[in-house]
Amino acid sequence: MATFLYKLGRLAFRRRHFVALIWVALLTLAGVGAASAPPAGSTSFSIPGTEAQKAFDLLEQRFPGQSADGATARVVFKAPSGEKMTDAGNKATVEKTVDELADGSEVASVADPYTGNAVSKDGTIAYASVRYDVSGMELEESTKHALEDAAEQARESGLTVEVGGDALQAVPETGATEIIGIAVAAVVLVITFGSLVAAGLPLLTALIGVGIGVSSITALASALELGSTTSILAMMIGLAVGIDYALFIVSRYRAELAEGREREDAAGRAVGTAGSAVVFAGLTVVIALVGLAVVNIPMLTKMGVAAAGTVAIAVLIALTMIPALLGYAGRRVKPAGAKGGLLGRRRGGAKSEPKKETEPAKANLGTRWASFVVRRPLAVLLLGVIGLGAAAIPASDLELGLPDDGSQPTSTTQRRAYDLLSEGFGPGFNGPLMVVVDAKGSDAPKDAFTHVSDEIEGLDGVVAVTPPAPNKGGDTATISVIPDSKPSSVQTEDLVHAIRDAGGDIEADTGAQTLVTGSTAMNIDVSEKLNDALLPYLVLVVGLAFLLLIVVFRSILVPLKAALGFLLSVMAALGAVVAVFQWGWLSGLMGVEETGPVMSMMPIFMVGVVFGLAMDYEVFLVTRMREAYVHGEKPSQAVVTGFKHGARVVTAAAVIMMAVFAGFIGSSESMVKMIGFGLAIAVFFDAFVVRMALVPAVLALLGKKAWWLPKWLDRALPNVDVEGEGLRAADERGSGPDEDRELVRT
Hints:
Layout: H1 2-14, H2 16-36, H3 51-62, E1 72-78, H4 88-102, E2 107-111, E3 125-132, H5 141-155, E4 160-165, H6 177-193, H7 196-224, H8 228-258, H9 263-290, H10 298-329, H11 365-375, H12 377-392, E5 400-401, H13 413-425, E6 433-438, H14 445-457, E7 462-465, E8 469-470, E9 476-483, H15 490-510, E10 513-517, H16 519-553, H17 557-582, H18 587-590, E11 598-599, H19 602-630, H20 635-662, H21 670-702, H22 711-716, H23 725-733, H24 737-745
Parallel strand pairs: 5-11
Antiparallel strand pairs: 1-3, 1-4, 2-3, 6-9, 6-10, 7-9, 8-9
Helix pairs in contact: 1-2, 1-9, 1-10, 1-24, 2-7, 2-10, 4-5, 6-7, 6-20, 7-8, 7-10, 8-9, 8-10, 8-20, 9-10, 9-16, 9-19, 11-20, 11-21, 12-17, 12-21, 14-15, 16-17, 16-19, 17-19, 17-21, 19-20, 19-21, 20-21
């Protein structure tokens, strides 16, 4: 592989005009497609194989035309102090508001609070339910404005009026902190390279790659029903890996220049060596993201595939556009160790080529740190494991759920409506359960409906049960159940299971099947499905990546150590997420206004993404160590050599990735905020504790055993040559750059 990529790098360096034109054309094409594509419609959230989804599908069949997936709104009214909602003036205001809402073109129905028993027992709070023909993402802006205007007019009469539901849902915003993350990345690159030109190359290529990826997602959003979170995730991961992959190749290019190679040859060797590591690191990320499909939640699968596509683009750009841009930059990209101004030139305009060393170079920080770890490996190993274990302790209290209006900031009308409903009708009113009774196989459907209603009313944790509402055919009915606990609580989850457990006896007695659905039941089913899929997903992703790393490192213990280190870092990161978003530690600093359960998909998502990113640092750092080892250095010295060449770059890459991820903490979407924080802290633990401390400590303790591989397996594995051994062999045979150039031309 190294030889092929070497030729590719030299070809891109020489044919830079053609390469740059291709990528600019792709960016333009994707941009035009995004600009001309229809706006994204509804993003269907389905969870195949769950009871909630079966009930939802049954409603679509038995209650046609009722828009089961249509947007809903609850306009909540609260009377001024000392007044009641049943007072004549307040009642007239509410009825006027209901009439105004019913005139909307997309409105399916509006329920009057006074005829629908929607006034609290103390008479101070009432609500009007509005159902629309289309989903929240498909509602026209005029419809949303009409809803907001109706609420505002009611407020002018002195009532407190708030609007809940998904009718006013907005596309999440990432905020200015995303730009700050990119700015931090730029500063780190300038410090790392000492050159504005060299620092600009990774940023430029990463932005082009993300531009192509996100524009393509936008262009396909309507056809594939991709949500807004999909493009944010692709941008988050694409920026991070795009900058990192380009950083590694540019750093290797400067190192090759420092050895006295010509620029074209240096570009080829940088792509052949660091580029090989980029390919395998990118493959691990792609495997982890595409592997999310095993969960069998279409939304999660689409998010993973879209982000994986952006990562693949980042790899291709790093392998082709970086050497092309290095060709354009010429001598403005300095060799490693060369001194000069930020523009990459010496004072006075002299060429920035390295001087011949007349005295031993001072050991850099990476060398000194690795030497320390090699001398005291056991102490470093124990300290690192204990530290990560302590950080992981909060994960034992992990509670999973999906965000609802109760997790919104208190500044939003949705959250204030949620709180008013809890105040007037109890916490369970915000998460009603819908029980669907399929009595098609029953001899007496009406009796079956009544029997189900009576059974549910006798269960613990039930506040109210509405009368059965049958369909026109009389073979199916819906029953609303109000729990006495909030939607995301364990008590509500227990009630859902209790109703489902009772369904078996009900079917035996009446022949009617009972199914529980609604947003609360959907959330519970999603959480359980994700929990059940976590172990198979972990086995699949870690297993495939483990095999891939065996091929890369030609070792059994090194990939095993990499996988175990990843488990430590991801558990520590989950512990940090629980401490901030569930316990409330530093919640003010992170902009978390409401603590609660951790998002259901967070553990499995972190396992996938963090594993892929963790293997990036493993590949980039350890390939340098293996390169030194196979060239004759002792195991302990190879560790030091690997850190000498790779520690500075890996550190810069980790800081950049943390900055990019942390930039998304400013998002208005709680899911994006949590993902940004979780990934940023996971990169910190994995890069600076696992890869920079535990990895050298374990390798120092293992010695030569770290690189052991059974002979039969060594013969069976393909030789991918990540270390560029084929290039060194070509040098020893006397195959110089000119001969290779002719080979590329042919």
